[in-house]
Amino acid sequence: MQNVTDSFVSLGHWSSAGSFGFNTDILATNLINLSVVLGVLIFFGKGVLSDLLDNRKQKILNTIRNSEELREGAIEQLEKARTRLSKVEMEADQFRVNGYSEIEREKLNLINSTYKTLEQLENYKNETINFEQQRAINQVRQRVFQQALQGALGTLNRCLNNELHLRTISANIGMFGAMKEITD
């Protein structure tokens, strides 16, 4: 350390008319060389370093600006997506409600239609039963009438003889003759 301070002190003692020579003190010469190099670098490199820092600053600011724009665009897209999502959810709820009400309406229509069909079938069944009862009653009546007629004819045939038969035919012919005269 003493050598460094001695070299600075010895700089003040150099004579202006003295001879030019080499300083062999390495620490003193290195320090002087470093200060000269740093001074030159600062003087000439200040503009280049300032330009480099300004360019880097502009790139960082542009990147921040672009990031902000992208962020704002992403926020807008997110809001649009949220709006679309809420619309779709409302539509889905509406479809769900409409679907359930439509299902209930179709269910009621099907139940009503089934009841009507059952009523019609019950009416057809009753009509068929009534028709079949009337047909059976008519068949029984016809058989009873035929049997009664056959019984009456059998009784008449046993009771009637030829003479009674001829008198009945003559009486009937007379009645027909009288009716014919009335109508003419």
Automatic annotation (TrEMBL):
Q: Recorded GO terms, molecular function?
A: proton-transporting ATP synthase activity, rotational mechanism
The source's superkingdom equals: Eukaryota
First-listed, main subcellular location of the protein, grouped into a coarse class: membrane
GO cellular component term of the entry, any: chloroplast thylakoid membrane
Q: How does it sit in the membrane?
A: Single-pass membrane protein
Q: How does it assemble?
A: F-type ATPases have 2 components, F(1) - the catalytic core - and F(0) - the membrane proton channel. F(1) has five subunits: alpha(3), beta(3), gamma(1), delta(1), epsilon(1). F(0) has four main subunits: a(1), b(1), b'(1) and c(10-14). The alpha and beta chains form an alternating ring which encloses part of the gamma chain. F(1) is attached to F(0) by a central stalk formed by the gamma and epsilon chains, while a peripheral stalk is formed by the delta, b and b' chains.
The name of this protein is: ATP synthase subunit b, chloroplastic
